[in-house]
Amino acid sequence: MNDKELDPTKKSHSREALLEAAERLFAEKGYEAVSTRELAEAAGVNLGAIQYHFGSKAKLFVETVHRMMRGSGCARAQFALTTTPTSAEDAATRLCKFVYSFLGYMLRPQGPQPCRLMIREIFTETTRDEEMYEALVSTVADEYSKPLEDTLIANLRLLADNKSQRELQHLARCILGQCTLYATHRPFIERIMNEDISKSPALEELAEHICRFTLRGLRLPETFIDNVIANASEKV
Amino acid sequence: MNDKELDPTKKSHSREALLEAAERLFAEKGYEAVSTRELAEAAGVNLGAIQYHFGSKAKLFVETVHRMMRGSGCARAQFALTTTPTSAEDAATRLCKFVYSFLGYMLRPQGPQPCRLMIREIFTETTRDEEMYEALVSTVADEYSKPLEDTLIANLRLLADNKSQRELQHLARCILGQCTLYATHRPFIERIMNEDISKSPALEELAEHICRFTLRGLRLPETFIDNVIANASEKV
DNA sequence: GTCTATAAGCAGATAGAC
DNA sequence: GTCTATCTGCTTATAGAC
Questions:
Q1: Confidence class of residue B216 from pLDDT cuts 50, 70 and 90?
Q2: Contact between residue B40 and residue B47 where contact means Cβ atoms under 8 Å apart
Q3: Are A181 and B177 in contact (CB < 8 Å)?
Q4: N or C: at which end does chain B have fewer Cβ atoms within 10 angstroms?
């Protein structure tokens, strides 16, 4: 990358093309399911380029995850939690908006989905290689999970200011867990409900329920909750 | 199996041995990561036996999942929710106990873990084969997810009897989601907290927090919650 | 039903020409 | 830096003897 800035004319187009193709393919199909040949073809480069630029498929993968995590500022930016909240009502509205957009992101694939990618690869322990696993976990934790959790906490703090940092962490995870379940268990849930949960009335219903349940878990008054949910859903 | 009862002398020992080895290995490492050779060796049978008895590795896998789901009565029995609750307090205590044991089950591997197995395979869409995927999803949904959800709902109904069936489903999933997150995101969470969350004070702290948050989400009074949590944790 | 030997294919990695 | 051709090792599945 820095090489590119130094010499923009004849620098490795294939490295960049590979990273872009890898981002898309790995996120779509998972590490194991993508072969180096497929990767090279999709990038329009030679098979040998993978070894030349990255040394191995695994190292290309680690590099891709790095890029994804840094590149998109995935966590906060994507879910409209960038600026700091000003009031309790503001914080609650932001949290609700987050739930709406996070749920939509998990259930309506459009473009690469870093979150899905990582959950999958880490949970399945895709790479038995210790060193690489460590690299993956730390990248994702530092560049994605931690910032996302911190942003949620910043909003939660205004709604439960007597809580310790540790309790706020728990609360953040309660929200994330409720959303994530619909991604990890989606096929089962859709079979039970006999309904596509990414379609429009269903998705909003799920989001609203999660918001309401969460705000009740924070012991907020019902009128406040109604108000916040109305605000959040109209502005999404 | 019924064959075995009919003719105990010369009936296929290898079929059974394969299913047992498959249950353990697939749950441990995942479908892709287990080779047919490994399977045959672990079962102490010949490689050809897999093709002979099941036709393919994939069909053996489907058979294994069937067996797991039916066999252990996984959902309810495992988490002490078998009998029907008698009172609101009883129901709440059961829910808390469920959270404790479900969390322990997800985070402290001992023996095959059907739940983990399915989440992983379904989420990663391990098999591209349409027919097989359908078989997996329906088995798991019918034999595991649905019964588990129904049992949770039976308890939730006593705590929120003015709710519709659909709302009760949502509530059940709020509980499951909070627990499941700690399994799917475990490496990230442990890195952030710098702590093994399956160890003893940590696990109980997580469980207690989930219980408290959930019961608050149901708008139950704080004294009731304290009482229930005290009951549940001492009896676990 | 169980075995051995082997087929057929695809994976990731490499050597060496240009 | 990019290419082709190839190596090595693994996978699942099969054919046919016993």
A1: very high
A2: yes
A3: yes
A4: N
Contact A170 B209 (CB under 8 A): yes
Write down the mean pLDDT value for chain B.
Answer: 88
B contacts of A214 (beta carbons < 8 Å): 217
pTM of the model: 0.92
Contact assignment for A185 to B217 by CB distance below 8 Å: no
Q: How many residues belong to chain B?
A: 236
E strands, chain B, in order: none
Q: How does DSSP assign A180-209, residue by residue?
A: HHHHHTHHHHHHHHTS-TTSHHHHHHHHHH
Distance CA B57, CA B207 (A): 38
Assign B125 a pLDDT band (cuts: 50, 70, 90).
confident
Residue among B187, B193, B209 whose CB faces A137 most closely: B187
pLDDT at B120 over 90: no
Cβ separation A185–B180 shorter than 8 A: yes
* A33-CA/D11-C1' distance, Å: 14
Rounded to whole angstroms, the Cα distance separating B90 from B76 reads 16
Residues B52-80 have a mean pLDDT of: 83
Domains, chain B: 3-55 (1.10.10.60), 68-235 (1.10.357)
Question: Using H for helix, E for strand and C for coil, what is the string for B75-123?
Answer: HHHHCCCCCCCCCHHHHHHHHHHHHHHHHHHHHCCCCCCHHHHHHHHHH
Of the CA atoms within 13 Å of residue B189, those in its CB half-sphere come to 25
The residue among A159, A178, A193, A195 with the most chain B CBs within 10 A of its CB, best to mutate, is A178
Give the residue from chain A lying closest to B147, CA to CA.
A192
Q: How far is the CA of B48 from the C1' of C4 (A)?
A: 10
| Average pLDDT of the residues in B76-87 | 77
Question: Does pLDDT of B2 surpass 50?
Answer: no
